[in-house]
Amino acid sequence: MYQYNDINQETVDSRCREFRDQVERRIAGTLSESEFKPLRLMNGLYLQLHAYMLRVAIPYGVLSSSQLSKLADISDKYDRGYGHFTTRQNIQFNWPTLEDMPDLLEELATVQMHAIQTSGNCIRNITGDPLAGVAADEDVDPRPICEWLRQWSTLHPEFRYLPRKFKFAITGSANDRAAIKVHDIGLRLRKGTAGDLLIDLWLGGGQGRTPKIAQLFKRGLKVEELLPYLEATLRVYNMHGRRDNKYKARIKILLSEIGLESLQAQVQEEYEALDKGPFANSVAELKALYSHFALPLIDIVQQSGPTILGNEKLAGHEVQRWYKQNTRDHKLAGFRSVMISLKPAGGIPGDATSAQMRALASIAKQYSRDELRVTHRQNIVMPWVAEKDLLKVWQALVDGDLAESNIDLPSDIIACPGMDYCALATARSIPVAQDISKKLRETELQTDIGKLAINISGCINACAHHHVADIGILGLDRAGVENYQITLGGRSDENARVGERMGPGLSADELPATIERVIKFYIKERHDDESFSLAYDRIGKAGFKPAVYGEVNDDAGVTA
Amino acid sequence: MAAVKIRDYSHGVMLIANHLLGGRTVYLSGEQQWLLLGCLQQQQAAIVHSEEAATQLLASINPNDALCPVVEPYVVQLSSNGMPSHSRELLRATGPSIRYGAPATQEANHVSI
Description:
The complex is a heterodimer. By secondary structure, chain A is α+β, with helices and mostly antiparallel strands. Chain A is built from 17 helices and 20 strands. Chain A has a five-stranded antiparallel β-sheet. A five-stranded antiparallel β-sheet of chain A has the order 3-14-15-12-11. In chain A, strands 6-7-8-9-10 form a five-stranded mixed β-sheet. The longest helix of chain A has 23 residues, at 6-28. The relative contact order of chain A is 0.09. Mean pLDDT of chain A is 94; it is low at 556-560. By secondary structure, chain B is an alpha+beta fold. Helices cover 15% and strands 19% of the residues of chain B. In chain B, strands 3-2-1-4 form a four-stranded antiparallel β-sheet, sandwiched between helices. The radius of gyration of chain B is 19 Å and the shape is globular. The model of chain B is unreliable at 103-113 (pLDDT under 50). At the A-B interface, helix 2, helix 13 and helix 14 of A face helix 2 of B.
């Protein structure tokens, strides 16, 4: 993984010194709150319902063991012994104090981490495929491009006050695990016929109150064109994006208002006029980054071992279920990627205690080349586990309460912090997720269902991606009472689309039974192993709606 | 200054905010002290029962004063039990409704090979 150079480290260290001075001036009373608020937000420090919240960037979701250990230490020293992994591959601490913030950030900097650009109207943390560089189905390892763009976008002087926040996601696989089509810009890296790197740029995706699927904006960019083309795109957005209404300020609205061809023409004109001089060394800089992400030189034969599936002693054992559900094919023979669920039945999606973080760091240090990933589904990946070590890894995960075998199953629920923490939320989402996952566990429905995404957002800002879930739940406030709308049929992959709203909202108490009915209806109606989204395509809103509102009989058939 | 938007003054309103240094949610007492909302004692709170009094209460705090110990103050409506009437502010008073930071129980699942 990437290691900071002296310039990177000094950039972060100097920012720590600057923010320490700003905090001291705020506490001393020489900076007012209105002066200080934008400064703290630039450093990822929010004020939430109960306390300050610090959002720490995890660039494209890649973490070292020492970084995760430091996050565990910080959660014990400055917080309440846990952290919350988010859908943008970041981590949030819910209880730090302003007084502690300078020391906390300095500790983060010692492991090459920071909270810069995790808030504000700037380019946010760049997210990516959590299996980047190890996935068997990958065309191009996106990590060098991710890092290149991280460096380009960090403290970019022209883009620090955009009309609104701006989010990138990047994948190098046809199977999109980074949800690139619901980001302001999504990049799909692929190889051309000559084996050269080509980049398709998808633009104008996003969620929130106006969900949009990105459109293919520029096909087949060459690598030397990428940075100037992005610079031209951001410049046009910076000039013409609306600043009079924050709900209409994202680039998806600009795209809708002026149209694809018009925006493409403006960006092309800007691109052609752009001085390319500053980019003269950028490709050389990119090439230098590749050494940080080279495949390890490993004696593959030594990594192979008795497979878990082929071991008769393990027939029917939980570890075989875990292997099938929580490990993935690897680019290197003899290796698997291990996915660790942060969604135990009744647990808090995305939360990890300091003990769990240390356990993960320790296991990764021993068995995963010191490396972990955070997924946008709020789970963790160990990307470099040898087949021969899988059983030991599983055992260690069991010991750390980290071996839930439910990756991509319905109880692998995405949930934002909701009104239990978030100042923007209009309803709670975590207890809803807990109740639904408990219900699914009780009925053992999961084993019959297969892959199915349930995402729960506590407000229309859609941090939990409810618009693009098979089953999306949106919490709203109806005269002081929590109320939940159901959407069905969304998806966030390469065939991304926004789900359809079913109708009137439901109470929190009604949700577990509602979700159970919808799932039973799907199981009854699906053809063979037809996915939820394909079944929804065939059956439609009118077919599913009676299941949502309980107008079905006991065997989940629709009543007349 | 945030506007006062209260529907019903019959059970009174009080002033809440975040403490500048710690960030924790606090309420204003009759003694003009900021106390932790999580330890709310109604008899200690500065409670008023009219829009005029609520406006005065809110105006008594100037969060733009750099020496003000709290940020983002606003008034909240109380219900008959003396607690905030809206679910959002009730959560601010009672804390997260979930047991945070603790993993769900999971049965040990060791295997001998």
